[in-house]
Write a structure and sequence with these properties.
Length: 342
Amino acid sequence: MWFKRFLTPLFRKKWGVNTTLVLLGLTLFSLKPYFTSPLPPSPQNPILIYSNQTYHNLQQTVYKPIENAKKSVVLSTFGEAEPELLTLLTEKQRNGVDVLLHYDAKSFPQFSERKFPFKTLGHKAQGLMHQKVLAIDDSFVYLGSTNFTKASYKTHDNLLIGIYSPQLTSQITEQLHHPDYPYLIESSIEGARLRFWSLPGLKDSALHTLIDAINKAQTTIDCRIFTFTHLKICDALLSAKRRGVEVQVTLDKKSFRGSSKKVAGYLKKGGVQIYLNNHGGLMHHKMCWIDKKVFVFGSANWTKAAFEKNRDYLVLLDQLNPSLEQEISKLFEASKRFNKPY
């Protein structure tokens, strides 16, 4: 029969092995992180990296810890949280979990008008409330580029870093209550040192540290930035290129045609390799990998507004153990699948 003739070649054996089944098994294994609920950070695994480009299910990365929360949930979001998430937060509050939703009051004034059973904190200062923070049970926190929406989880290129540290979680939760939080948050976690700059309160320190890290680069700089307009950071990258550092920058293709166009032109003229994402979503990362030793990420785009006006943050991880270095390198390598050179 026709279907037998079609299926038979798929199940032929080579060297005594059914190659089709082997390939199918390997494919399913590689996609396993996307279909399973990612484990949260813990004392045994204090820093974990999640990205939809490494096939992690970012929606479950967010939902599962909230579902399992016993004491508290703190959510800081720029984009309007999806209805299912608001329903889950409502359920947790009614079940005795202390819930706080921190949001941009100017973009979403309707939040203040809705009668949520949980506490809300609207950011009303100048600039956008652009932070993305999820803190659970005063024990662990998620930071990164991911807004709490379906498009962020599934369509756009995004990142979350889960960190287990009660002290760090408490400090990051505390800074949400201060529009111009003036203190550097620094923590030594097993396998890395972390520094967290709350913006715009620490705009000068954050910008100086980022440029200093670029200036100290010796071999490679790999940046993936959604919106890039800051000329001082651009100048630092061009200086690194001139002294022989291999510099490449990936930009979102829509931003590239708009706000990032000027910086992209400067970088291209200076010999920096520019890449654009070749899919329909946004390349929403704000991260940089320097000498495969220093990892910079956060909620902040590389713009003057992010450093000087918006409620944002910049994070630098260094003194990394080999395992974390390998995981971050895997993330950047996986991201190349979605690039095209400009």
